[in-house]
Amino acid sequence: YNHLHFKAIQIGFLSKRHLFAAAQRCNMLPFLRYQIPFKPDSSYKPYIPAVLAIHGLTGAIHDTHGYTKSKEFVRNTVVGKHRLPQNTKELEDLISQRSITLLEDIMNITQGDLYFKLLSGSMKTEDIVVGAYNGVNKIGEGSGRSTDEAKQDAA
């Protein structure tokens, strides 16, 4: 993945979960099972080995076949069925459509450093205000009728 050639890809396309799905589409998971201790299928999600495998495969394709084929691999396999936004308006529309998963994307970016704090309200009141914090810094604030709604707004 070269960010200079794929400026419109938002971080969600490069999250651990999305790259795991790309590895699954490439039928890599049976090979990854030999790299870490086996766990039952219901809970087996080798995110990090899958991420490393996709990065390694992309690099190998780039070294062997060049930029055009590696770009095609990223567009068709990693991005998959998702259509990339072509301009700022399409990117903003995509972000607004995916507002529910933005919280998940932000958590992937900060790798667990993101936490929420109740600023005002309670479960019994109509309006709840929640702050999103990255370490000690407040990076967002949101309100809603439920804590989940307030967290999404803060994200």
TrEMBL record:
Which residue ranges traverse the bilayer? none
| Origin: domain of life | Eukaryota
Q: What is this protein called?
A: DRBM domain-containing protein
Do you know which InterPro entries this protein is assigned to?
dsRBD_dom
Location of the DRBM domain: 98-155
Q: Keywords in UniProt for this one?
A: RNA-binding
Q: Name one GO molecular function term.
A: RNA binding
Supply the source organism for this entry.
Vannella robusta
Does this entry carry the keyword Transit peptide?
Answer: no
